[in-house]
Amino acid sequence: MLKKITTVPLPTIRRLPTYLRVLEEMRKWGKEYVSATDIADYLGLTPIQVRKDLAVTPIQGKPKIGFEINELHRAIRSFLGWDKTTEAFLVGAGSLGSALLGYNGFDEYGLNIAAAFDANPRLEGMEIHGKTVFSLDKLPDLVNRMGIRIAVLTVPRDAAQECADQLVAAGIKGIWNFASPHITVPAGVVVQNENIAQGLAVLSVKLAEKLEVP
Amino acid sequence: MLKKITTVPLPTIRRLPTYLRVLEEMRKWGKEYVSATDIADYLGLTPIQVRKDLAVTPIQGKPKIGFEINELHRAIRSFLGWDKTTEAFLVGAGSLGSALLGYNGFDEYGLNIAAAFDANPRLEGMEIHGKTVFSLDKLPDLVNRMGIRIAVLTVPRDAAQECADQLVAAGIKGIWNFASPHITVPAGVVVQNENIAQGLAVLSVKLAEKLEVP
DNA sequence: TAGATTGTTAATCGATTAACAATC
DNA sequence: TAGATTGTTAATCGATTAACAATC
Hints:
The structure is a homodimer of 214-residue chains. Helices cover 43% and strands 17% of the residues of chain A. The first copy, chain A, is an alpha/beta fold. In chain A, strands 5-6-4-3-7-8-9 form a seven-stranded mixed sheet. In chain A, strands 1-2 form a two-stranded antiparallel ribbon. The relative contact order of chain A is 0.09. At the A-B interface, helix 1, helix 5, strand 9 and helix 8 of A face helix 1, helix 5, strand 9 and helix 8 of B. The structure holds a DNA duplex (24 and 24 nucleotides).
């Protein structure tokens, strides 16, 4: 009986950011209301699925008219917690880390990378895309003082697990893991693995199918 | 009756690259055989799921021993088509495009980015991480001459659809889309959308749940 | 009003998990 | 041999899709 409150399906959560972008797009076109059918047509989904997904927000659509774009947009952002900014640290200032430091779209997702950390002492004190790089041993203290809960992990694969352990020890509660296909963390810590190879695998297989049986 | 041959579940396909990494890891430890149980323990999955996933390959495991690591590794790579190199073009040599050009892990995935293209004439002829940047209008001819089928799309969001149309017109069959949450293409062309915001959405929601109900 | 769209409840579909005989 | 592990068939679980009354 416990444990199940109203778990929103993971696929739904993954589609929500796309709805945000679609709503922004349609707002740009001067629209004020949008129906689930419009969104579904635009994205190649079914209207029923879109309506189910949007039901995670408390926003009610109006029959024959649809949803108020701004209101829906605000509600989805709020559901994702993207209406307030969360500060995060980036760990591993290599090429991928640097690229992410230079990405300026995170504020749209309620995320701000406050600082970067690297094991290489030669990077200490440097700025990458305006973010200061600190020595990794400064991390626990700064996590504590700034109340940081999220880390973006972009170290080399071999360093991933050890580094994750340090992050957990320092009090990090969520790890956005670009470093390794899998890391082990204690319960109470959330890991989101990002792995570019997954998408490429899907593309590879689908393309092979298409080319075989056209 | 048509159409369904033996569709491998998408979640399975997405897990396959991770199995490759795990097999490499275990090979490094000097192991020769690995059981589905070992892999499952390592990744936090169930042994049954791992066995089901591995059944997409023709490799048979040996009861009590497991699977021959090298053989299984080769079979998964073969299933994904990653045993032969596929040449691809990257379109959009901005910060994300440059970062991907500098990523040297693609050969593990059977992908080689042969060249980059950009609409900005000032980039023409430049080299980024050893890859030459061509003008976008050279793309159709080069796609044709080199028989390129895959494009990595890393242009700004607003240019994504127009650029995708050009790629399709040029004969590209698979688009790995980092540019926009959604693009429309004709049937016969495969699109794989990569969207960093999806993973962050999952992390955000899971973390919020954890912090609310610890 | 008629018809498009909503939200909800039920049916279907697909993936995961369980059960179990076969095997080394 | 006993026991761990395999591969397969059946049961369960969860997400998607369908059906439909309510509404503007």
